[in-house]
Amino acid sequence: MTIEVNDSNFEEKVLNSEFPVIIDFWAEWCGPCRMIGPIIEELSDDYDGKVVCAKVDVDSSPAISAKYGIRNIPTVLFIKNGEIVDKQVGAVPKSNLEEKLKTLL
């Protein structure tokens, strides 16, 4: 199950996570975001207990989006030990995200 992350709980849920984190920056009105959303949910189920999958609504959390320079959505950040280690911009197949995810484990 993915978790909702926002400006107020980002540090606690993402930067202080003991597990690698995948963050999907998205918006309700974004077509490609709706394509990648179910993939993030699948990865959350597939890697339960190994990875945290989070979603950030860019419209309701502008500070986090600005801090990480999110200009295009969907953008997926891969974070390990509080540091960005990889990034994917745009809708891609599950295999692309899974390949990047496996390097975090």
Characterization of this structure:
The protein is of the alpha/beta class. It has one domain: 3-Layer(aba) Sandwich (Glutaredoxin). The protein is 35% helix and 26% strand. It contains 4 helices and 5 strands, in the order E-H-E-H-E-H-E-E-H. The protein has helices at 10-15, 31-46, 62-67, 94-102; strands at residues 3-4, 21-26, 52-57, 75-80, 83-89. It has a 5-stranded mixed sheet. Strand 4 and strand 5 form a beta hairpin. The model has no long low-confidence stretch (mean pLDDT 95).
List the helices and strands and how they pair.
Layout: E1 3-4, H1 10-15, E2 21-26, H2 31-46, E3 52-57, H3 62-67, E4 75-80, E5 83-89, H4 94-102
Parallel strand pairs: 1-3, 2-3
Antiparallel strand pairs: 2-4, 4-5
Features:
single chain; 105 residues; alpha/beta; Glutaredoxin; five-stranded mixed β-sheet; 4 helices; 5 strands; 26% strand; globular
Structural class label: alpha/beta
**CATH homologous superfamily (4th level) name:** Glutaredoxin
CATH T-level fold name: Glutaredoxin
Number of domains: 1
Spans of at least 5 consecutive residues whose pLDDT stays below 50 are: none
- Strands, total number: 5
Task: Give me the strand/helix succession.
Answer: EHEHEHEEH
**Average pLDDT, all residues:** 95
Distance between the termini: 18 Å
Strand content: 25-35%
Strand order of the largest sheet: 1-3-2-4-5
Helix content: 25-40%
Text of the CATH class: Alpha Beta
**What is the molecular shape?**
globular
Number of helices: 4
Biggest beta-sheet profile: 5 strands, mixed
Do you know the CATH architecture?
A: 3-Layer(aba) Sandwich
